[in-house]
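fyi for ur records
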Amino acid sequence: MHAATAGLSLGLWLLMAAAEASPALHVWLHGGSIPDNDDCAVVAVAHGNLQVITNDAPAVVPVLGVEIVPRVVASIFRPAGVFLHRPLIIKNPSHLIPHRPAIL
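which gave:
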């Protein structure tokens, strides 16, 4: 794309330089006669009256690839849903303690 733009710009510049050097080409570009107050591109190039126009908007650069990496998040806290049930109350915990024979 840059080579094509550079080639087109060079071609236009050479055409303007050739029209500046050849009055017959300049007349032909105007369609047969050059007006008295001629301010065409050929005259502007010949006199160096060029206006440079800049674009203040940044160019949009396409993103070629986006890497998506899954994150594993581990939490030491329990979710709040575990606290929504009624607590279990054990009235006689002796049946939960394993029986150990007495050592004599």
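Residues 2-47 form one domain. thats all i got for now
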